[in-house]
Amino acid sequence: MRAVRRTVRLWLAPGRLAEEGDTPDYRFSLANERTFLAWLRTALALIGGGFAVDQFLPDLRWGLRVGLALALLLAGALSALRSVSHFVRCERAMRRGEDLPLSRFPALLSLVIAVVALAMVVVVLAGWQS
Questions:
Q1: Per-residue pLDDT in tens (0 to 9) along the chain, 130 residues
Q2: Residues 6+ apart with CB under 8 A from 17
Q3: Any alpha helices (H) in the chain, and if so which ranges?
Q4: Number of neighbours of residue 127 by Cβ within 10 angstroms
Q5: φ, ψ of residue 97 in degrees (nearest 5)
Q6: Which of 15, 42, 52, 77 is the most buried (most CB within 10 A)?
Q7: pTM for this one?
Q8: For the stretch 76-107, what's the b/e string if a residue is b when 16 or more beta carbons lie within 10 angstroms of its beta carbon?
Q9: Contact 59, 23 (CB under 8 A)
């Protein structure tokens, strides 16, 4: 639990992160920030997709509609949280001269999106009738 609190503090206090190691080349920090922003755009798109499924598919059976919407909304929320975590971990690694951290999150997110997309294909082919 302490590690989680310490990590969240780094998210909210970038000055603490600046105290670690040496300042990396600004190009790398800016690339890290662009990646962070791309993850946030992905999170917003997933959240928007979740709301769209819920609002624009009223004829879809309730359980399926809510399940698809919640999967997209949850994936969006996790992407937003993961984006800041990954940004801080990468910035810390660059400052310390370490290898950049690896993550399974992109693969897991891809699988969730693929499952939702396949479910939507079934819905479209079935004519989304309940």
A1: 787 787 777 777 777 888 888 888 999 999 999 999 999 999 999 999 999 999 988 888 889 899 999 999 999 999 999 999 999 999 999 999 999 999 999 999 999 999 999 988 988 888 755 4
A2: 10, 88, 91, 92, 95
A3: 2-12, 14-18, 26-56, 62-96, 105-126
A4: 7
A5: 75, 25
A6: 42
A7: 0.83
A8: bebbbebbbbbbbbbbbbbbeeeeeeeeebee
A9: no
